[in-house]
Structure formats: structure tokens, C-alpha cells
Amino acid sequence: MKKFLFLAFIPLFALAQNLQPYDSIAVGIFKRALSDNKAYEMLYELTTTVGHRLSGSPQAAQAVEWSKRTMERLGFDRVWLEPVTVPHWVRGSVEHGTILARGSRKAIPIRITALGGSIGTPGEGITAEAIEVKSFEELQALGDTAKGKIVFFNRPMDRTQFDTFTAYGGAVNQRGRGAIEAARAGGVAALVRSMTTRHDDFPHTGGMGYDETVAKVPGAAISTNDAEVLSNLLKKEKSVRVTIKLSAQTMPDAESFNVVGEIRGTEKPDEVILVGGHLDSWDKGQGAHDDGAGCVQSIEVIRLLKTLGLKPKRTIRAVMFMNEENGLRGGRAYAEKERPGERHIAAIESDAGGFNPRGFGVGDSTAYAKLVKWASLFAPIGADRIELGGGGADIGPLHRTRGVPPSG
Amino acid sequence: MKKFLFLAFIPLFALAQNLQPYDSIAVGIFKRALSDNKAYEMLYELTTTVGHRLSGSPQAAQAVEWSKRTMERLGFDRVWLEPVTVPHWVRGSVEHGTILARGSRKAIPIRITALGGSIGTPGEGITAEAIEVKSFEELQALGDTAKGKIVFFNRPMDRTQFDTFTAYGGAVNQRGRGAIEAARAGGVAALVRSMTTRHDDFPHTGGMGYDETVAKVPGAAISTNDAEVLSNLLKKEKSVRVTIKLSAQTMPDAESFNVVGEIRGTEKPDEVILVGGHLDSWDKGQGAHDDGAGCVQSIEVIRLLKTLGLKPKRTIRAVMFMNEENGLRGGRAYAEKERPGERHIAAIESDAGGFNPRGFGVGDSTAYAKLVKWASLFAPIGADRIELGGGGADIGPLHRTRGVPPSG
After folding, report:
1. Residue A16: what pLDDT?
2. Taking 50 as the threshold, does the pLDDT of residue A241 lie above it?
3. Confidence of residue A404 (pLDDT cuts 50, 70, 90)
4. Which residue in A234, B137, B146, B394 is deepest, having the highest Cβ count within 10 Å?
5. DSSP percent split of chain B into helix, strand, coil, nearest 5
6. Does A31 touch chain B (CB under 8 A)?
């Protein structure tokens, strides 16, 4: 699911089957985007002046202001905020992990990080034997064996997958539901191998959930290198004890916003084509690829139209969704809001990183049939792969509740 | 000219028109390459334990040893060195530049670097008025005006080109022949805007040449940001003086090597398919993209065949060429060497960086017609764009002197 919307607005001009007049418009857009380099400049500004921006954080509020100010400064026809109530989870400063193996005199430090949404541990941490599993089925088959233990989910992402999203999809249930399944088996915590194909020392955070039917136990990611260390020790020794200390906690919900800007259509202003990304990010990096890129690309779509004096027939709307990472509240709020007299005819999301675009995935077969005819417009930049399937998390609710064809 | 040979050996198995049996072999190769991750590991080792490796430098000698040892350790059928006499240019430690403008009390430092092959300046540097031109034609039209001046070549790479090699090709003559043309116009040095589409503070080095018909004057690159500073000053003031100090010098030619390893063909061992990259690099970075990537990809081709137990009908030969950057002596020496009883039937070079591959350029129409039929084999990893045109600098001599179809 390579999802890029960088240039996705071109088909708006190409509703007629004769693409010829649009070839030169498309090339003009490509050249202007490349020469102005504004998307990269905006991304640099967002990620260095604001930085990471987890929902509910001061930085998320700054990012809302930054987005609004940026679109206003660029002269968008309308810019506004739409309120969203978001979860407010904070990591805190304590994230420590150690292995206590019999064969080793000293505790071995392991690099761990709380998964987003996790509860913290008591101040002294949780110390328990670790038990390794590769799947929920394996855990369930253990019966009572996992009781009182730290459940170590160690199924790697499949490195042989060319599409890393496929590899991610094949492993990420351990992170999303690991704490639930660990608790259900009587475990005291979930320790999940980092979601990455790399062998590295960085524990990668990401979202996890709880379930009302079982107790909440902490969930943490362990770096892939340390996961190998722990796994090897478990092969050699009967009992390997692990300590994890996390100071994460969930605060009361916070007020935040989706940030919206648009250029009004000349002929059918009430028909809206949405281009979007998500403004929130995890708190361990800068949120450049995930998903600052999608936000600035959305702004860039309208900036380019304005700069080149191109007047779309329909309204093009850039939406910076809040809270994709740990709640999807922004995507839901956007879809639920009543918008009398307005009709969304398509929604495009970019949330696969700011790479060299190769094309689009279209999650609706009718829209796909149309878009595939426009592929040649994207050939000059090698972004002409149009595939059936895909979309984006933030525009999912719009698709499900209002039938808007998603693309990404 | 996207040139990637990462997986280029697959067509060797596909000489029959029926590709079906090769589909699964190809996929097996892709998966193994991805899961082993050895190409990246080798690249990391080369670029961190050896680092940059300019022809004639101690690091270049270490890189030769590293390549030989690596291929031997991987169990290649044969590994050997082929001597090449290379130019030995050294940068030295002094690279200073300043602008002395009338409107400014203090000298403004500019970031410059000697172009590869440049002579140095006297110890006190060269101080002269700068004169800006965008082309050789503009310089020639100036008549005597450039006499005694530092000629500042400031034609940017065209950022609107999607293919950055095209943008590079449109600007690089300023670097390659700037010092010659400056001298011909009576100038005392050439100062060339860095070859990059970025606006940054890093002066980028690269090759330049001299001509026996005119005096040798120093050639230096100036960072794109400082090129803008200088250009703006020149617009405002009549006389802007620039000082450049460079300690570069050319030593006597040095002995070096092309490093060669191969897997022997089972049916036609005397028919050779060459895959190559260049081992030397410039001395300002690590030479990862240019062209450590091409070298490790070449090694990886044979490592994968060995690992998977695949036995090619023809001999596959990996060549790490020496001295692509400032002389092409390795490519020439390889082509000139007589190899009785041996026939090269194709040569593939990777020298466009270690990116996600998109396909191949083929510089021979007959070979192109064949290769294009095998495109579907590369579709699983999205590398199925086969284009007519392209090749590589190192395999150019083999193509010109022996008619070997080039690809990259």
C-alpha cells in the first residue's frame, strides 16, 4: 500500500476522457513542485520548530497553530479548525528494562519503551519470569503456564516481504492486542518485539489497546537486538527473570483540532475532494515520515494550484487529522460532522512516508476504474502505478459512514 | 538513467522465451536478498571500516583488500586482482575561501573545496576580482573582461528535472571544463557552483580536467548557499574580490587494482556476463551511494547464486573497478586486457546510488529487445521498468572497444 497524494489533484482536471490538454498542466505542476521545493521546506519547519506532537501534548497544539498559520499565509480561500477530543497519554521519564539470567552475575540492560496507551508499572517495576511466544494461538495453548509471567511476543516482521506494510500487517497484532492477550492468559505484562525489519537497538513505540473484559497490564516494546538476546537466553536457561519499569500514564482527555484549509471550486464548490494526512505523531522522533509528509503534501496540493493560478471546478480541501496514532478521533470526528449542502466525492490520504512516489492505491473499484485511465498523467515522474486496494486510516470513517471513495 | 543491477542476473536463467519456470526462481532470489540483508551489511562494513577511498590513497588499497577478502570468504570460484595504474591526487588540508566586498568591513568566509585533479594555489592563496558567468558562451563573449579574474560559474542544476541525472548533465560541464575555459579567457581560477539541486553549505567535489593547450589554473567548488551570497554581492557591487587557498596536489601515478570475482558457468564458462560497480570514491564522504552500493550489489549477485545453489550456464563475473571518479583507468584497463578464449556477452553496471530499484537502462537496442521480454520477472519488486539508453562509465570502454552490450 504505497500511498502518496503529492500530485493526486491532477485527475481533478481530467474528468473528461481526453487527457491530452491535461498533460502539460500536469507537467507544469510537477516542475513547479520540484523547483519550489516548498513541501520539503514546510516539513523541515514543522519537524524542527514543533518536533514530535503526540495527541494532547503542547507540541500537538503548536502543530495545530503552525498548520493554520501556514495555510492562512499561503492565501487559502478558507482555513478553520474543527474540535476533536483526544486521548492524552504521556510516556513519563522512566523506561527501564533488565534481564536477570542465572548464567549472568549482572543484570543485562534491555532497551524498552512503553507502547502508546499502556499503563505504567509500580515504582519498583514489575519483575517476573519471561515466557516467549510467537502467536496468540501459542499463548492460548499454554494454558496456565503464562500465569504470573511477562509474556514476550517475539514474532518478527517478515523480512522477505518486498512491501514492508505487508510485513508490518503480519506482526502488528502482537503490539495492538498483546497486553490484552497476555492479561487473558494471566500474564503480568506484555513485552513486544519492535515493529521493524531492522536489527537495531531502538525500541519502536506504537499504539496498543485494552479490552474491558480483562485487567490492564503494561505493554512495552523491546528493541529487536535485545529481543534476540532475550530469546537466546530463554533457549539456554529454564528461568529468565525480567524487570520492566514504566512511568506512562493516561491523563484526562484533551481538546484538540483537525486543521482544515481549502480552495473553493469554481463550478461545483459544494463537491469536495479531500486530501489529507495526520498531524499527530509519536513522541520518540520528529514525525517527519509519519506523517508530517502527508500534512505538507496536502497543503502543497492547494499551494501549487494557487501559485499556478489553476482553478479547480470542485473544492479541494486539505485536512490535517489529529490523533491517527492513538485513537483515530480526528478521522471519526471529521466523518461524523454534519456538513449540510456539501458532498465529498473523493478522499485521498498520504500516510506511507515521504518517499519518491510510485503511484496510488484506490480502495473502491468504481473510482479505481476511473483513476486507472489517468495513470499516464503521472508517468513523467514515474508515479503511474494505480492499484486497487488501499486508502488510509483517517479517511476510513468517511468511507465507511458516507461511502466516500478512498485513495492513498 | 536509473541504473541498478541488484537483481540483474535473473535474466541469465531466462534465455528461453518461456519465463514461467523462472518466476519462482526470481522470487526466491528476491526473498533471500531481502531476508539475508547482506548487501547492506557489506556496504556498512566497507564504508565504516574503510571509509572513503580515492584512487591512490591508503584507503583505496584497503578497499581492494576488503573486496578480495570478502569474495574469497564467500567462496567465489575465482577471485583475482588486475593491476591498474591510477592518478594520485591529494586534497591536502587547506581549503579556504573568503569574499572581500566593499560594502562589508570583514571578509565573508565561503565554503569551498578543491575539484578533483586541481592544482593548488600559492600558500598565500589567489586573490582576484570575481566575475560571474552562466555558460562558456557567456564567458567567451566577454572577451578580455575575464582577464586576471576568478571566473565564477554559477549555472544551477535544473531543479525542475525529475531525473536528477539529467539536471546534473545540464550543469556538470562547468565543473569538468571550467578551469580550462577560465584559463582560456585569461582567468586565474575557476570557482564552480556545487553540483546539487539542494541549497546547502557543503561544497561538493567531483572531477575536473585540464587541457594541454592552456595554463593550469585551480578549480574549486563553492557551496550553493555561498554561490547565492556571492552572486547577490556581484549584483550590488562593481568589484567583489575573492581569495581562495587550496593545498591540493598531484603525486606520481600509483599502482592499484580492479578486483574481480566470479562463479563459473556450467555450460558456457567462457561466455562472461559482467556485473560491476566502482570501488574508488571521492574523499569527502563515505562513498556509500557512489559507488559502494554498486560494488556490494555486484558481490551480492554471486553470493545469492552460491547461497541458493543456483548454477548459471554462463560465467557471472563481479568487477569492482578502480578509478571511475578521476580517470576511468580501471574501466579502460579492463577493456584493453586481452582475455584469450573468453567472450563478454553483456555488462551491467550499478552507479546511480543504492536506492529502491525501479528497473534497468539498456544501451543497446538488440539487448534491449531481449531484456524487455523479461521485465515481468522483476515486477514482484517493482523493478520492471526496462528503458532503452543508459549503461555506465566503467563498462563504456568494454562497449566501445569490444561491442559488449551495456546495461545499468
Report:
1. 43
2. yes
3. confident
4. B394
5. 35, 25, 40
6. yes
Q: Is the pLDDT of residue B49 over 50?
A: yes
B296 SS3 class: helix
| A385 lies within 8 A of chain B by CB | yes
Q: Is A159 on the interface with B (CB under 8 A)?
A: yes
A378-382, B103-107, B118-122, range with greatest mean pLDDT: B118-122
Q: Which three cell numbers stand for residue A30?
A: 510537477
Looking at beta carbons, which residues of chain A come within 8 Å of B32?
A: 160
pLDDT tens for B308-321 read 999 999 999 999 99
Cell of A59: 507540541
CATH no. of A92-247:
3.50.30.30
Q: What is the ipTM of this complex?
A: 0.86
Taking a C-beta distance cutoff of 8 angstroms, is the pair A55, A322 a contact? yes
pLDDT band for position B18 (cuts 50, 70, 90) = low
Supply the DSSP symbol for B388. E
Domain definitions of chain A by residue range: 10-88+252-407, 92-247
Is A324 known to be catalytic? Answer: yes
Nearest-CA residue of chain A relative to B356?
Answer: A356
Separation of CA B152 from chain center: 24
Of A315-319, B15-19, B128-132, the poorest mean pLDDT is in: B15-19
CB atoms within 10 A of CB A389: 12
Instruction: Give the pLDDT of residue A18.
Output: 60
For the annotated catalytic residues of B, the residue numbers are 324
Does residue A339 sit at the B interface (CB-CB below 8 Å)?
no
Smallest CA–CA distance, residue A32 to chain B, in Å, is: 7
Amino acid at B44: Y
- Which residues in chain B have Cβ-Cβ distances shorter than 8 Å to A382? 162, 358, 385
Q: Which of A30, A160, A358 is nearest residue B382 as measured by Cβ atoms?
A: A358
Residues of B in contact with A34 (CB under 8 A): 159-162
User: Which has more pLDDT, B65 or A354?
Assistant: B65
| Interface residue A51 vs chain B (CB under 8 A) | no
Cell 449540510 locates to A340
**What does the CA dihedral A59, A63, A69, A70 come to, rounded to 10 degrees?**
130
Contacts of B360 in chain A (CB under 8 A): none
pTM score of the predicted model: 0.91
Residue A376: phi and psi, rounded to 5, are -60, -25
User: Rounded CA gap, B354 and A299, in Å?
Assistant: 30
Residue B272 has phi, psi (to 5 degrees) of -110, 135
Peptide bond into B211 cis (omega under 30): no
Q: A130 - beta bridge partners?
A: A150
A349/A362 Cα distance (integer angstroms): 10
Task: Specify the CATH class of A10-88+252-407 in words.
Answer: alpha beta
A402 inside 8 A of chain B by CB: no
Pairing of strands A359-362, A343-349: unpaired
Tens of pLDDT, residue by residue over B203-246, are 999 999 999 999 999 999 999 999 999 999 999 998 999 999 99
Contact B37 A382 (CB under 8 A): no
Confidence of residue A21 (pLDDT cuts 50, 70, 90): confident
Report the chain B residue with the minimal C-alpha distance to residue A157: B35
